[in-house]
Design brief:
This protein is an alpha+beta fold. Helices cover about 45% and strands about 15% of the residues. It is built from 14 helices and 18 strands. It is globular, with a radius of gyration of 30 Å.
Length: about 475
Amino acid sequence: MIKRAYIYFIVKSVIVFFVLSCVAAGIGLSVYSWQLSQQIHKRFSTRRWRIPSTIFSDITIIYPGQQIDQNVFAKKLKNIGYRAVAYPPLHKGEFTLVASVIDIFLNDLDVPSLKRKGVPISIKFSEDRIESVIRTDTKEPQPVIELEPEKLMLFFGPEREQRQLVSINDVPKHLVFAVLAAEDKNFFKHIGVSPMGMGRALYTNLRHGGVRQGGSTLTQQLTKNYFLTSDRTISRKLQEILTSMILELMYEKDEILEIYLNEIYFGQKGSVSVNGVGEAAKFYFGKPVSRLSLTEAATIAGLIKAPNQYSPYRNPERSLARRNSVLKAMNKNGWLDKKKLNEALKMPVITSDFKAYGRKAPYFMDYLAKQLTELYSLEVLSGHGLSIYTSLDTRVQAAAEQALENGLARLERLNPAIRRTEPEKKLQGAVVVMQPKTGHILAMVGGREYGVSQFNRAVQSLRQPGSALKPFVYLS
């Protein structure tokens, strides 16, 4: 009897200990889950991304009789962000150049001083002058047309990320299907994690003796980017799984997908990282995300796995093969019929021109940046996505830079004694062009070469003006 009672006591103690341990673990898990939910809520209810502030030039005025070279004007359109096409412009942001005529489908204009909807126009040139400006849909002559400002500079934060936020409502269905086919075909079915996917990935990796396949869902990828490190440890993976499930409980699928599409990394633009489908559509294909074709959408979706490896700029062959793989996956999952698949597989990958980020009018930008940092903190300038409009005219700026270079070169040619071979010892000068009625600065050149010297002689070189200023005294 004593032995039986002892065994009963031991068994009962083990059961009680087990139950208490489970209760304690449940309480601990509940507390930890609550803390995670608070962290998720705080992260997603406040500013989710650092968006660099953008500095713009002034708008450009176009009117009949204006003297401007046709090719210079076409270059101006490309600098603003218009895309040259081989057919009559059908969408906003497109233009075509045929003989002496440039047809443009204007973008919407929204600046503090003016707002207008984008309309199709046709500009006819006669030698170096604009002969006429006609709105092609109404056939009405236009006395004046305003073009959007040109992007001059971005205030990047420490991450140097460039991102163009888009709503899930502006993302075409074929891009959504392409991303799901490439990364997570069961996104709308799982609760943040996919046990079958993780098991399949584990089996594949064990069979090949290395990491060949990932089992993470879109939600897990988003969780890792937002809250965790990329360390491959069991504890981090468990934290990722728990956080993903909490995220799925707190937010709708479309909300999670929208955040994911705006967050994911798509490669490098020079020293700046391209994040989100909005910026990727602009960088790779020069168009808004809403106008991506099926093949373009599949190309972008294919980048997510390894952006630099499948970049159409760096590895066009690999990019094409990856795009075709995504298209076939879309067909396999019932999101693309066989006829459209065969048509898409024959299409080449055609990208827009690559343009690395670079500042324009650097002396003016330094002058402006000094003023801005007196008004705003660097945190606001590099993270709040402000749009800052200036009076700079990029055509006048280019002319001023060329005029200074030509003028200094002519002086050196006429006076060989002042000519120097060392860049830092060369003859220097400065140009400031202002609008007399308003005092607005149209152009500023503070030296011969910004890369050699950042000293702005237009505003930092304090000298007697001599007879450069003529005072007028009015006596009544």
